[in-house]
Amino acid sequence: MRQKIILIGLALVALFMGVGVQQWYTRDFVTLDGEAHRWRSYQGQWVVVNYFAEWCAPCLREIPELNKFAQMTEDTDISLFGVSFDRLPEQELEALAQKYAINFPLIRTEPPPMMPNERPNSLPATFIIGPDGQVVRQLMGEQEAEILLKVIERLSE
After folding, report:
1. 151, 131, 156: which is closest to 141 by C-alpha?
2. What is the rounded distance in angstroms from the CA atom of residue 121 to the CA atom of residue 72?
3. What is the CA angle 113-116-118, rounded to 5?
4. pLDDT tens-digit series, residues 79-138
């Protein structure tokens, strides 16, 4: 009887450890380059998430500004990610990135990403996620690199 209790106890410990390890290594999202990301690794940093679609003219007009923003913030604690509103498969997303010269990481839609924000109802939509991992601002419409940076600077004060 005592051996059964010990075996059951060990099995439960192993189960809980397995769940804990699985939770630790689970990814929240994967970018087009195949890199897995966890939101917890961005704690203490600012993250900008931009939703776009090819059929959205303002979305396409703001891509050069978002590229500029990504370049301006390259060596800072600010990261930028793009998300296809249309949930395009990987190959279509790659083609879109090449066609429009998108130079910032795009989040794959498969496997479905775990996002800290709700899916927007209109486009373009940009979410600013604060160092605590919470959405602190949602910006609608086309964004400009300098203004986006100023918004984050103001929020940092």
Report:
1. 151
2. 29
3. 85
4. 999 999 999 999 999 999 999 999 999 999 999 999 999 999 999 999 999 999 999 999
3-state secondary structure of 40: helix
CB atoms within 10 A of CB 25: 9
Nearest Cα to Cα of residue 52 among 96, 12, 15, 22: 96
Is the bond leading into 131 cis (omega within 30 degrees of zero)?
A: no
Judge contact between 140 and 125, C-beta under 8 A.
Answer: yes
Closest CA to 53 of 61, 45, 43: 61
What type of residue sits at position 148? Answer: L
Q: Length of the chain in residues, anyone?
A: 157
> What's the pTM value of the predicted model, to 2 decimals?
0.83
Check: CB of residue 101 under 8 Å from CB of residue 71. no
Cα–Cα distances (Å) from 139 to 26, 110, 128, in that order, read: 29, 25, 8
**Environment class of 144 (CB within 10 Å of its CB; exposed 0-12, middle 13-18, buried 19+):** middle
Amino acid at 38: R
Do residues 104 and 70 touch, judged by C-beta distance below 8 A? yes
